[in-house]
């Protein structure tokens, strides 16, 4: 019988370098009391973080052991009244209910029908609800090198990536699904992409704390000039492309003013897992 996955014994810290991009953006876009759906929640790093900040989170994942770990962590931290989890194959079923925010990080590239999944996410959001999305970028330097010299990317094959995206492809896909893109961030430069390749680098990813974290994140962001490994999009639910008319477009704009976000909200850097 396989060993159970580890559980969290304390709430995630804001100065975590591994999730630094992500936590910063979640702080800006998710408010206490909001209903949040975490699509592909994994071991719950995002769900537990949001629950600790007062959100009501429902996480779904295809792996039963990951969901069990999430439940144990939430109970150990006294957050099981705000964080619930369910095993679910999103290629075949979808969680019921409506949500203020849907978080979908490093998931879309694993799913067979990405357009259909985005349409389901749109249907799960309240009017004017927010989607926080991240995917691997086709501009990632290591990905391009592997494609150039091997003709394929063994990393993507090993991780189960069915595809990668460009910013334009994501924006068009989201627009057709009925989202209005409010911000795009290219994240994960060479520094962040190379560290997971060695045991020492993986250990280092978990070490930075306090003032060192924002400094290293800034250094890493500067290296995206050579190509980003991850694309992060902040998009607001609107009207699907096939349903739009000039009059409907006007109604959507009036219904979703920029002031709907709390002061200081903007698209920012996100992080979920090592990506190269």
What's the SSE blueprint?
Elements: H1 20-29, E1 35-39, H2 45-52, E2 56-61, H3 64-76, E3 83-87, E4 99-105, H4 114-124, E5 125-136, H5 141-150, H6 154-159, H7 167-177, E6 179-187, H8 190-194, H9 199-205, H10 212-222, E7 230-237, H11 246-255
Parallel strand pairs: 1-2, 1-4, 2-3, 4-5
Antiparallel strand pairs: 5-7, 6-7
Describe what you observe in this structure.
This protein is an alpha/beta fold and 276 residues long. It has one domain: 3-Layer(aba) Sandwich (Rossmann fold), CATH 3.40.50.150. Helices cover 37% and strands 19% of the residues. The protein contains eleven helices and seven strands. The protein has helices at 20-29, 45-52, 64-76, 114-124, 141-150, 154-159, 167-177, 190-194, 199-205, 212-222, 246-255; strands at 35-39, 56-61, 83-87, 99-105, 125-136, 179-187, 230-237. It has a seven-stranded mixed sheet, sandwiched between helices. It is globular and about 45 Å long. The two termini are 32 Å apart. 40% of the residues are buried.
In short:
The protein is of the alpha/beta class.
Keywords for this entry:
disordered C terminus; Rossmann fold; 37% helix; 7-stranded mixed beta sheet; 276 residues; globular; alpha/beta
Low-confidence stretches: 247-275
Q: Assign the CATH class.
A: Alpha Beta
CATH level-3 fold name: Rossmann fold
Cα radius of gyration in angstroms: 18 Å
Any idea what the CATH architecture is? 3-Layer(aba) Sandwich
Strand order of the largest sheet: 3-2-1-4-5-7-6
In terms of quaternary structure, what is this?
single chain
Task: Find the structural class using helix and strand composition.
Answer: alpha/beta
Amino- and carboxy-terminal Cα gap: 32 Å
Characterize the overall form: globular
The SSE order reads HEHEHEEHEHHHEHHHEH
Q: Please indicate the percent range of residues in DSSP E strands (runs of 2 or more).
A: 15-25%
Number of strands: 7
Number of domains: 1
